[in-house]
Amino acid sequence: MVGEESKIRVVIRVRPNNRRELEQSQRTVVKVIDQETILFDPDEDEDEFFFQGVKQNHRDITKRTNKKLNMEFDRIYSEEDNNETIFEECTKPLVTSVMNGYNCSVFVYGATGAGKTFTMLGSDYSPGLTFLTMRELFNQINALRDERKFDIGISYLEVYNEQVMNLLTKTGPLKLCEDSHGVVVSGLVLKPIFNAEELINLLTLGNKNRTQHPTDANAESSRSHAVFQVHIRMTEKKTGQKRTVKLSMIDLAGSERAASTKGIGVRFKEGASINKSLLALGNCINKLADGSKHIPYRDSNLTRLLKDSLGGNCQTVMIANVSPSSLTYEDTYNTLKYASRAKKIRIVLKQNILRTNMPKDYFIKKATDLQHEIEKLKNLNKQLEEKLQQQQTDSKPFDEMLLNSWFDKIDASYSALFKVQEPIMNAQSKERILYYRGKLKECAERGMAELSLDGVTVDEVSLINSHCIF
Ligand SMILES: Nc1ncnc2c1ncn2[C@@H]1O[C@H](COP(=O)(O)OP(=O)(O)OP(=O)(O)O)[C@@H](O)[C@H]1O
């Protein structure tokens, strides 16, 4: 995976219609075709309509034609999909990447009321991605505790009207500075945590401190960008090697146009500021998608803060939330366009460099030890080569004479064996002959006795007997 090119994973989540949308029985402007395709502004199902005898494509002839825009994303979640499913497919794999040393980020994007906070924080009956992801992180950490030591600290910041505030301590504004490791929030102290349950209290506290104002679309609209980050330092117990990784979960403020929230005064300034930072974010996404060298991160505090979560060495998932209702036609269209731009971003992933606290002397000693080891092995190698050569020169040439004398001895013993076997076989066959001859003699004598009774002479019997010799 080191140096592997990867693109931002972009998924779309379509939430169910809310009460207002149902009451106004608006038409649906998005149609989930399959898990990767969404159709924006599909044709409406309408009865056939004739005007002056001619069939009309639309009942309302003043109405513009539907966009019927087919768009493809890494995954489309429909209103039936819950936070658990999105966690399993989108952020659970990120936890494994974090444990392997990669920085990871999750963004939720969309207009006010589209379901960003519901996705990130969830509700009482359906915990959101932040909790589910952190619970998985602690599961994986606990499984590795024998091998590694972990130090975990979290931060929860909001960017409101371009100012960075600490949501856990309700302090700020905090300054952003840049050092060799990237952007640093000065004065930010990480809050150590030891389990996922502890996180719930911290998230609740942070959310209470988050700037919220009602909008037309959402009674509890978050008017700031919330950046939740987990910083993990892992120390290998055997080697002492350390590495630090960061998991960021970002709930962006609504991407709706400032005018659409009908805000005036402070609310208008707020909307304009949200738009400024989202515009800057959009510009960075566009430049990254085009492969530009210069990315305008410095255009807003949000993009400065997210620099290493977007284009840097970071595995990123963007969840674009949309409402299905025609009430939010423009916002849904803009969100889908924004998301399809983000889909084009390609980044090169690098595993975080292992850092160590070992002093310089440790490495000098290690290098000297290794040098000695090399010398020792070289000497050993030389000795073995010499020994091998010695053995080759010492070894006696092949003794053909000796071998031949042994062959002669074997031949001699075989012929001696045959010599002994021959008389034995002869003796055995003679014994058999004698046995049969005895038998025949008995026969002949018995026959002679009978013949003599029939008038045959003894000489004739002897003659028969002599012919029966084998
Ligand atoms: N997938 C969903 N299923 C059920 N209810 C949802 C879903 N998504 C959002 N909602 C409900 O819709 C309302 C608005 O959602 P949410 O607060 O998450 O919007 P938001 O995008 O964070 O808006 P804002 O930018 O104004 O903060 C909430 O009451 C929330 O419970």
From TrEMBL:
Organism: Hermetia illucens (Black soldier fly)
Protein name: Kinesin motor domain-containing protein
Coiled coil: 367-394
Residues that coordinate or bind ATP: 110-117
GO biological process, alphabetically ordered: microtubule-based movement
TM segment ranges: none
GO cellular component: microtubule
Family matches, as Gene3D superfamilies: Kinesin motor domain (3.40.850.10)
Domain Kinesin motor: 7-345
Family to which the UniProt record says this protein belongs: Belongs to the TRAFAC class myosin-kinesin ATPase superfamily. Kinesin family. KIN-8 subfamily.
Pfam families: Kinesin
GO molecular function annotations of the record: ATP binding; microtubule binding; microtubule motor activity
Record keywords, A-Z: ATP-binding, Coiled coil, Cytoplasm, Cytoskeleton, Microtubule, Motor protein, Nucleotide-binding
InterPro entries: Kinesin-like_fam, Kinesin_motor_dom, Kinesin_motor_dom_sf, P-loop_NTPase
Protein location: Cytoplasm, Cytoskeleton
